[in-house]
Amino acid sequence: MGLPPVFVGLFIFVMLVPAGPLGFADIIFTPFAMILVQYILVTPIITGISLSAIKAVPKSLIETVYTLGGNRKDALIAALCEARFGFITAILAGLGRALAEVGAILIVGGNIAYSGSIGGIGEGLSYTRTLTTAITSETSKGDISTSIALGIILISLNLSVNLLANYFQRRD
Amino acid sequence: MEELIRIEDLNMAFGEKEVLKDINLQILQSEIFALVGPSGAGKTTLLRILDFFERPKKGNLKFNGMETSGIVNIRRRMSLLFQTPAIFNRSVFENVAYGLKVRGIDKKIIEKKVSEALSIVGLCGLENQKAPTLSGGEAQRMAFARAIVYDPEILLLDEPTANLDPANVMKIEDIIKWLREEKNTTILLATHNIPQVRRLADRVGILINGELIEVNTKDAIFKDPKDKRSEAFLKGEMIY
Predict the structure, then answer these.
(1) Cβ atoms of residues A78 and A65 within 8 Å
(2) Model confidence over B76-88: pLDDT tens digits?
(3) If one looks up domain B1-77+152-240 in CATH, what number appears?
(4) What domains lie within chain A, and their CATH numbers?
(5) ipTM more than 0.95?
(6) What is the pLDDT of residues B193-220, one digit of tens each?
(7) Which residue, among B89, B113, B153, would best test binding to A if mutated, counting the most A CBs under 10 Å from its CB?
(8) CB distance B53–A63 less than 8 Å?
(9) d(CA B41, CA B200)
(10) Which residue of A has its CA nearest to B96?
(11) The pTM is what?
């Protein structure tokens, strides 16, 4: 269901560098490139879970729609409504996956943060630096306390998303 | 009584297996017709053909006096209730209101009709309960309410009381009788429950191995069955 993130990152990098086939777009090392690679990585996960949710809608339920006078459109809407918790779970699983991503976004985003402050706040404001890539760079710099602090934020976010996903899975 | 459905020379097969053979049958208006036979006889298939879920291999279906300009139009004047009802993962109200909503009925009328249907099946006060949390008997009664809320002319019932306790069986049977008496609904009941046939049916058709071997009034068929297989089945003897 999932693709190897580092490979996807490398592939998109090769596509987007100035000498690459999509180099004219000039989006390498920008948030847009990171969004693109995240999109490619999470789409199969969201699609897979959503498909399973749709397939889990019993045939008898669709037949019931027809027996009650519904048409194809009503049957489609009913199937989508029945699978709604599966869709929410899929989106949350994708979000959890995207939050935890490091390799691919590091390659295409470049982990860029501005030096200095803007308006007296935000020393080292992020451009393409995320929680995960910041942890890797802070750790490599030896600033373990910052890494741990960022790690706690990241794990809290991830746990919250997983808890929500579990809640909707149970309701399904 | 006027004829409402006419089935002529109907044949049905799944692959090589013939499941219905030369069925000829008339269902009359406002009657309770019991289609009786052992499991696997073809009762469910016949009901599914009548509700357009299966296309017969051969034969004709005529819905006299009913709109025939499209399957949806005919279907909207019928209702098929499955042995195990499929329940929408929503409230009891939304489940029962479904058939009215797809017909574009006004909200206020929907509320009134749903309330009436729930009172008929004895589920008043459960409107806001999540339907999947209902007991088996309650779920079947809710499915009944859902099937009758838009006053169908024909009600196709596939083993509606299988797996229910006697109290719920009695309630469902009361609803069936009430529908026929008060709403003049034509009811086609597929069952292998002989005592239930005695309690409810006006006419009976015996379906064994895909063949409709005998059709007659309830009294005639129980008193003097013309076919030995009918006699054996009605007496409760096993038929293979």
Answers:
(1) yes
(2) 889 999 989 999 9
(3) 3.40.50.300
(4) 5-171 (1.10.3720.10)
(5) no
(6) 999 999 999 999 999 999 999 999 999 9
(7) B89
(8) yes
(9) 21
(10) A68
(11) 0.83
